[in-house]
Amino acid sequence: SHEPLSSGSSYSNFRNPLGLVYRMLTSGQRAAWSALFREGLGKLAVPVDLLLSVSESKKLKTATDERLPVILIVGPPRSGTTLIYQVLGYSLDVTYPNNLGSLLPRSPITASRMATKRRAEFQNFYGQTARMSGPNDAFHIWNRWLGSDRYTARTDLSDAEIDEMPRFFHAWTAVQQKPFLNKNNRNAECAGMLAKYLPSSYFVAVRRDPVCVARSLI
User: Fold this and answer.
1) Cα–Cα distance between 204 and 113 in angstroms, integer?
2) By three-state DSSP, how is residue 186 classified?
3) Are 64 and 8 in contact (CB under 8 A)?
4) What is the pLDDT of the chain when averaged over all its residues?
5) How far is CA 41 from CA 31, 44, 96, 100, 212, in A?
6) Which of 74, 149, 171, 189 is the most exposed place for a label (fewest CB within 10 A)?
7) pLDDT recorded at residue 53
8) Is residue 18 predicted with pLDDT exceeding 80?
9) Could you tell me the sign of the dihedral formed by the alpha carbons of 130, 188, 49, 118, in that order?
10) Alpha-carbon distance 191 to 200, whole Å?
11) Is 188 helix (H, G, I), strand (E, B) or coil?
């Protein structure tokens, strides 16, 4: 596997999770250690998440059509998408899913307000950032509609999901009063569908020489 664990991830997506954990522990990278720490902390955060999810549900039910931009960064793994995410996140007046939100997957809108942006930081470990306020891929959000497989996204949604997805982002931007920014490589597979059901979406497509991408993966 070329991606590390993240809170809420499915171990079935990784061929050798124990080897992956070992590589992360011995990497010397603070972002890798932070990802492992969050993986364990997420189990302890379940009661808090359940409590916060009550107010989260109210936000979703009363969401208005804000139509603030939803900016989605897509591209192949190891192409620089995380760096673009970090640069835009720190440079623009936007809101984005953070690492704290990955610990509270039932209440990510509430969590997004609990960890504010700090100084710029442009290091990451295979897409993982170190700080609780650091930008997160947000699989804990996208999995609600696109499934739990980290590499293949669903390309068909039920009528209820088609209604729920834009409502979620309307609620998020209504609370934050800022455009929403996120990077998730898997979303490249279903960008057309996302553009259809999220009319206020904009896509930043990152391209890199395929040979360089292959070398980075290896």
Assistant:
1) 25
2) helix
3) no
4) 83
5) 15, 5, 21, 10, 35
6) 149
7) 82
8) no
9) positive
10) 13
11) helix
